[in-house]
Amino acid sequence: MDLVLIFRVVLLAVVQGIAEFLPISSSGHLLILGRFFEMPDVFLLTILLHFGTLFSVLFFFMSELSEVFLHRQRAIALVIVGTIPTVLIAFTIQKYFPQFESSRLTAGICFLLTGLMLVTILRRCSRTESEEYYEKIAYEEEGVEPPVMKTIENTTWLDAIFIGIAQGFAVFPGLSRSGSTISAGVLRRLKNQWAAEFSFYLSIPVIAGGAILEILKQFKEVGRENLASLFQLDSYFAIYLGGAFVSFVVGYVALFSLMQMLKAGKLHYFAIWLFFVGAATLAWTGYDHWEQIVNTVNSWRGL
Fewer CB within 10 Å, N side or C side of the chain? Predict the structure, then answer.
């Protein structure tokens, strides 16, 4: 039994489950971990971990999704409208700027941007009663009605497009998908609970579509017979399947934790970790390229 492989699979599964839903970026953390532990990109494991987190969303929101399909079809239309800009932006970035997806520099910068987003935008979710009271007084003094917080009934197509655009740019490693979409929803005056729900409804076609696109990509690169062998003959399939179950369980717990922290107005606390890991990533990148940086600076001085 390969204990080292089991440790690495469990580690990746835990990180995938936590970071996929908490606003800290799963792609950024997996990129950094992969580089630090020198882990190869295992196609089958990647697919199974993504499906693990997909099923955690479906299971966590089972009752809400049943209600949506039976009585609230407007939510389905909003998800479709929001997914369109996501697909267009993500496709453009992946096709024309693929280098960013494996860049530690990009991840470090985006970690910092996500942290900044949490402390500036999601900080609104943690307003005290006195802050809300003074905001209400300010609107009354200006003689205008305070903006209505939106639910599923009055969320507009423009709101869905705006949130979908935010999700599209989250293809950059380090830029949290959940943090970006919930922040976009807050900016568009969606109620906190509905902003989080809509964020994760949007994640369903993205996670599923991403896994399917990865399969098609592998199909194009290795061919039908070799692709089939990846699923049928991989001797570590049982370990990978266990990793998918771990990502499912951890993802469910992460979703529950996120919803509780959103209600308590504490999502911006994750900014502390993001600022730390962002700074550490940039320092690591700078250390690895220190000689190149010094040479560049010296060449500038010689001009």
Answer: C
